[in-house]
Design goal:
CATH superfamily of one domain: HUPs
Distance between the termini: 43 Å
Number of helices: 13
CATH architecture of one domain: 3-Layer(aba) Sandwich
Structural class: alpha/beta
CATH topology of one domain: Rossmann fold
Strand order of the largest sheet: 3-2-1-4
Helix content: 40-55%
Strand content: 5-15%
Oligomer: single chain
Length: 260
Amino acid sequence: MSQKYRRIKEYLIQFLREETFKTGLNGGVMALGHDIESVVTAILAKEAFGNRLLVLLTEAESQDDLLRAFCQVRDIRYFTVADSEIKQTYSFLEGADTKRTDAFVSRVRMAVLYDTASRERALVLGAKNKSDLLLGEGTVYGDLACALNPVGDLYRSEVLEFATYLGVDASFRESEHFVRSDKDTTGGYLSEMLDRMLRAFTEERLSREELIAAGYDSEMVDTVIDRIYRNQFKYKGPVIAKLTSRTIGQDLCYPGDIKL
């Protein structure tokens, strides 16, 4: 197991460096929270960029001893954004439900990150795992927005194992924030079981009937497949109506590092 994650660590650090440097930029900017994914991404980005990493904490998170200690011990620069000020500034949010308000604040926070990245000559880094992406966890143009995501092809249970390999403080897993997030994301299903089913459906391409025959609960299978189908738009670019022989985003695509 340690050999697997040693190779993954080496590859992801190189991935961050190569994909960033080929753009002519030099550094990363990202949001850091109690989720294991952002903690793991911050560790990788710190090794990739050194002091060229800058993380955003919400005002509440900046007062959190666990997150502040993490940044201090690993010598990670951070700045804060007050969600309360965002809500006060945009008066039309008064009376809005929590889901709408949270989505709006997430998008404003991401706008701040992109502006900060421009100032820092850096790229915005994402930190959503494969399980969350498949199930549609996140806000379009909010916390899903990024230029690079090093952990997006790791299932949630793999990120947890990876975090242990990287020496992430067990306090993060035991925190109230993480436990609540884990329950909300998995819908009450065990992460390991959910990830096995996601892998079987997406990578092994088992059908609904084959998944049920393999022992997965039919209600779970239907719920998960429905979420995958309904939320796939979240990780795709805008759909452009095809009128010519080569259309951007469909069959007109050049390598990211192409040059004259």
